[in-house]
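Hi Prof. W.,

I finally got the ATP-binding protein prediction working! I wasn't sure whether to trim anything, so I left the full sequence exactly as given:
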Amino acid sequence: MTALAQLAAGAVQDWTAAAEFAACTLEAEPRSIGAARQFTRSTLDCWDRTDLADAIEVAVSEMVTNALRHGLSLAPVEP
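And this is what came out:
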């Protein structure tokens, strides 16, 4: 089961992040927007930067939304 499927099933994620870098893999579906927000907030909590959480969560949400909206193509790309 993917992390996104676990999240959809109500599982609480135990996100871990290094002190200087954090990353997560998202699937190309709208539910990933919420997963990205949760990952962002959890990472900022680990880094004791909750003062930035609201603004950064909005920015991450916008970036993931734009990536999903504009980065996916239903038409095959010719070589």
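The first helix runs from residue 3 to 8. Does that look reasonable to you?

Thanks,
D.
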